[in-house]
From TrEMBL:
<dbReference type="InterPro" id="IPR002835">
    <property type="entry name" value="CofC"/>
</dbReference>
<keyword id="KW-0548">Nucleotidyltransferase</keyword>
<keyword id="KW-0547">Nucleotide-binding</keyword>
<protein>
    <recommendedName>
        <fullName>Phosphoenolpyruvate guanylyltransferase</fullName>
        <ecNumber>2.7.7.105</ecNumber>
    </recommendedName>
</protein>
<keyword id="KW-0808">Transferase</keyword>
<dbReference type="GO" id="GO:0005525">
    <property type="term" value="F:GTP binding"/>
</dbReference>
<dbReference type="InterPro" id="IPR029044">
    <property type="entry name" value="Nucleotide-diphossugar_trans"/>
</dbReference>
<keyword id="KW-0342">GTP-binding</keyword>
<feature type="binding site">
    <location>
        <position position="173"/>
    </location>
    <ligand>
        <name>phosphoenolpyruvate</name>
    </ligand>
</feature>
<dbReference type="Pfam" id="PF01983">
    <property type="entry name" value="CofC"/>
</dbReference>
<feature type="binding site">
    <location>
        <position position="189"/>
    </location>
    <ligand>
        <name>phosphoenolpyruvate</name>
    </ligand>
</feature>
<comment type="pathway">
    <text>Cofactor biosynthesis; coenzyme F420 biosynthesis.</text>
</comment>
<comment type="similarity">
    <text>Belongs to the CofC family.</text>
</comment>
<comment type="function">
    <text>Guanylyltransferase that catalyzes the activation of phosphoenolpyruvate (PEP) as enolpyruvoyl-2-diphospho-5'-guanosine, via the condensation of PEP with GTP. It is involved in the biosynthesis of coenzyme F420, a hydride carrier cofactor.</text>
</comment>
<dbReference type="GO" id="GO:0052645">
    <property type="term" value="P:F420-0 metabolic process"/>
</dbReference>
<dbReference type="GO" id="GO:0043814">
    <property type="term" value="F:phospholactate guanylyltransferase activity"/>
</dbReference>
<feature type="binding site">
    <location>
        <position position="192"/>
    </location>
    <ligand>
        <name>phosphoenolpyruvate</name>
    </ligand>
</feature>
């Protein structure tokens, strides 16, 4: 689908309350570092993926996001839900990372689905014909090839405008591809894979489910943490900071 505009959406709440289910195994400082390093990896991967033309990060802590993404991508603050700010410039011919628009969710509705909906409104205001790629910020193995594969999955067989990248359990949604202009209610949360499939069917939109190692691996629980290679755990949390006192 050459010539289309693809905008990635990354919800990133803040650096304090994230990854609470790791609290029994990681110190608060280690958890904050994990959130930071994961976000840098996911946004950096998206920024380096050829199909991506722009990135929108939705957060309750814009200062944290700006600091976190320093050196990974250029950020532009759009701090009011009612003010979308200027559209992100196109990818430079040199292939440098795309610009990241940071949206402040604090004055809008709380919650993950509300965050993604806020970002969709931002994209619709500037590029109503764009394709959205929603990605969680806790995917330690995500690679540019995964992004390309998800977008290519729309051509099938079977052809479908909605692509759901499920988690390793086959029940969640780690990434979601859909037209920005589509009438579609986000259903992130427990059982979101089935919920998103049902929503697509209700809207008359074809949906395909994809499972790849790079998209299925997320980091929510201590079991997920234990499954990561030791060098990756050390890089994410920092040496000597993985255990609570």
């Amino acid at each position: 689908m050459s010539g289309e505009s693809v905008v990635a959406v990354v919800p990133l709440r803040d650096g304090v309350s994230g990854k609470s289910r790791l609290a029994t195994g990681l110190t608060p400082s280690a958890r904050r570092r994990v959130v930071t390093e994961l976000a840098r990896h996911v946004v950096g991967t998206l920024a380096g993926a050829a199909p991506i033309d722009g990135i929108v990060v939705v957060t309750t802590d814009p200062a944290f996001v700006t600091q976190t993404l320093a050196g990974v991508a250029e950020t532009v603050l759009a701090t009011s839900p009612a003010r979308h700010g200027p559209p992100a410039p196109p990818r430079p011919a040199s292939g440098h990372p795309v610009t990241v628009s940071v949206l402040d969710q604090r004055r809008g509705r709380p919650g993950l689905n509300a965050a993604v909906d806020l970002a969709r409104g931002h994209v619709r205001a500037h590029a109503p014909a764009a394709t959205l790629l929603v990605a969680h910020a806790d995917l330690p193995s995500l690679a540019p090839d995964d992004v390309t594969a998800l977008l290519a999955a729309r051509t099938g067989p079977p052809a479908a405008p909605v692509v759901i990248a499920t988690d390793r359990h086959g029940t969640g949604t780690n990434l979601l591809v859909l037209p920005a202009g589509a009438a579609f209610g986000f259903r992130f949360g427990a059982g979101s894979r089935a919920a998103h499939e049902a929503e697509a069917a209700r809207r008359g939109l074809g949906a395909v489910v994809v499972r790849r190692p790079g998209t299925a691996a997320d980091l929510d629980t201590l079991d997920d943490w234990a499954d990561l290679p030791a060098p990756l755990r050390a890089r994410l949390a920092g040496p000597g900071r993985t255990a609570r006192p």
